[in-house]
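Just curious. Invent one:
>
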Amino acid sequence: MFDVAPTELLLVIVVALVVIGPKDLPKAMRFVGKWMGKARGMARHFRSGLDTMMREAELEELEKQWREQNDAIMREFPRIDDVNAPSPKPAAALDAPSEQEADEAAAATAQPENPETHAVPPRDGPLP
């Protein structure tokens, strides 16, 4: 990022030692270190925010492309269920059962005339 050669860094340290003095130099270095940490943290937070925004924009674009392709495929190849689905009955037909449905319902609930004719036949052999 910054192109600082070791000789330049040594020169900065010597100047700081002369200007600040050996007594206050550790405090000054600690202060500079804290501010550098805060600056790096802010830069990291800013960069992660930008990365998140870019990722969301890419996802929205991919989702838009997917929807377009899905719609094109669905228009080209409609579902079999949609093509073969019977047309809905009118409301009046839903209220009143058809004649065939009424006959089937009556036959299912009707009792046999002679209950013995529908009884289970006896088993072969002696009863235990």
Remarks:
- The longest helix spans residues 25-76.
- DSSP finds five helices and no strands in the chain.
- The radius of gyration is 44 Å.
- The chain has a mean pLDDT of 79.
